[in-house]
Input
Amino acid sequence: VYALENCVDFLSSAVVLWRFFALSKLDDVLEEKLQRREKRASIAISFILALLGLSIIGTAIDDLSRGQEVPDQLIGVVMVAFVSIFIFGILSIFKFHYGTVLESPSLYKDGICSLIGAVLAGALFINTLIIDESPGVWWIDPLVSFGAGIAAIGMGVRAVWTARSEAHLPILNFSWWMLSQGEDGKGSSCL
Output
């Protein structure tokens, strides 16, 4: 789950980079174009959050079904998880801060992806330390992961549902995702 979360966090960060990417100097026209990307980036990250949640739940269920395993390389796992707590924690703080300052829901949602990474790393860290002393509580990490997966699915699906049903964004229309049409959610029909 932990490695997969890193890949998904990278994808959400790539979407945010696309949202803010500009080759030329910022002017009013370019700023308007970048602002129009915000809705698409936010919806894309919502889909990524739901996908992340599904994969986390699947892996957590697999871990729970396999039961207790012999822990290998506990020191290495503890060190990687400990460092990851700080990296993902700091990333989420920066993303939340700049998401608020720049009024960017996509950057804020990217912060949620990083926060989920920090939670998963924290659960892995704590569970690994506990397993060293008491192997019978191996289930803590998969259980926390399962909860994080449910939260990610809930946030992602809710955002997509809201965009489609309340904001009436044509998110299932291919042309809405392209720059040439559907920039403001008007003029395109929903599929």
User: Anything to note?
Assistant: The helical segments are 2-20, 28-66, 74-101, 105-133, 140-166, 174-177. The longest helix spans residues 28-66. The radius of gyration is 19 Å.
